[in-house]
Predict the 3D structure of the following.
Amino acid sequence: MGWSLHHPHGLIYHAPQYCHRGYTLFANLLPNGNLLFYTSAPSEPGPMTEIGGHSGGLVELDWDGNLVWQLENPWLHHDFQRLPNGNTLALMWEEMSSDTTFRVNGGFTTAEDPVHMLGDVVREFNPKGEVVHEWKSWEHLSFDEDII
């Protein structure tokens, strides 16, 4: 890892070649000094990769670069949060049923597969990587009022 002695807010890095719509980097400095961040996209293309924002997983490293925790999942995207109890919240995609897909007003499907759509799920993982809670957006939002 790195830091800057010249800037009061730490490491500042700007790479104009990566500054475009849809390119997001997330890393959280945890209270214990470890760094929690998304890994790069999986080497094997996942489903619907053209919608962007996906990663290969979450990694926690200590200050010396040692692996502390890892969660591999190509459905992770855009945001995560370590909770005070040590669990981790992560935003993920999940393939919705064809019945649900047809009820959604808007959304994104591909020409190759117009029957399936990905929906957002927030999952809470314990330190062992087990799901302890999940919230599926399509189970809580109105198909008539929440048009996407």
About this structure: The longest strand covers residues 88-95. The chain has one domain: 16-139. Residues 16-139 form one domain. The two ends are 39 Å apart (CA to CA).
